[in-house]
């Protein structure tokens, strides 16, 4: 199982080897009555990571606990995981450090934490691979701040989150200018980040909308849907009618972010 070193940091002194298989909860430990709720990662938005730069997102969550528990007695943090359950994950991702919690009521903490995503091929065992793009489950972990490997509380099924590869989209409408009634050829290309190679490659056989905005308008209208070829390239034609701006727009997938190209203005004479 692949597990990021960052999860070890969430658990304070707990060793990485102890996290590889989540430890059973021991009776009488400070995390025994802890539960998590209201976990919100990246303000509810998808997590989008480019080809090389680290992305850090913020998470907020609540910790319900037995009355009298001191925030400093436990380390907590949100995690993303895949697999049938959080106690037997096939993949798990967490932040470099545990969350910061403040007392809300006698039985509740309000917490914030950060999770880092590193698309740096071969840099460490916690780098992302392109195969990891897509849907993840949301969970959380609480650990005895002393690092006791028996005192760990895992909670899963706290939501879902898409981890997406950043995409780029271009457009070129020609000729410019063009006579009314003549054919305009609109080309472009859809690419997305490879976390394995730290580069952008064409995203093939994807549906992309060709859109047009009349001069003086702020609204784009979809003219047709075009599919990228195997290399991510786009090409279609349309008839020149009035001055305006053409663009391609991609709705995104669970693995790849949505994107719209910067529009290309065409003068119709």
Secondary structure layout:
Layout: E1 2-3, H1 5-10, H2 16-20, E2 35-41, E3 47-49, E4 55-64, E5 74-82, E6 91-94, E7 100-105, E8 108-117, E9 134-144, E10 152-155, E11 160-165, E12 167-174, E13 183-194, E14 199-202, E15 207-214, E16 221-227, E17 233-239, E18 244-250, E19 259-260, E20 264-266
Parallel strand pairs: 1-6, 3-11
Antiparallel strand pairs: 2-4, 4-8, 5-6, 5-9, 7-8, 9-10, 9-11, 12-13, 13-14, 13-17, 15-16, 15-18, 18-19, 18-20
Radius of gyration: 24 Å
Give the proportion of residues in helices: under 10%
Chain oligomer state: single chain
| Beta-strand fraction estimate | over 45%
| Net shape | elongated
Question: Main sheet, how many strands, which sense, barrel?
Answer: 7 strands, mixed
β-strand number: 20
One letter per element, helices H and strands E, the order comes to: EHHEEEEEEEEEEEEEEEEEEE
Mean pLDDT: 89
Measure the end-to-end span.
62 Å
How many H/I helical runs? 2
Given helix and strand content, the structural type is: mainly beta
Unreliable spans are 5-27
Q: What's a concise summary of this model?
A:
By secondary structure, this protein is mainly β. Helix content is about 5%, strand content about 50%.
What does this molecule look like?
This protein has 269 residues and is mostly beta strands. The protein is 4% helix and 48% strand. It has two helices and 20 strands. It has helices spanning 5-10, 16-20; strands at residues 2-3, 35-41, 47-49, 55-64, 74-82, 91-94, 100-105, 108-117, 134-144, 152-155, 160-165, 167-174, 183-194, 199-202, 207-214, 221-227, 233-239, 244-250, 259-260, 264-266. Strand 9 and strand 10 form a beta hairpin. The protein is elongated. Residues 5-27 have low confidence and may be disordered.
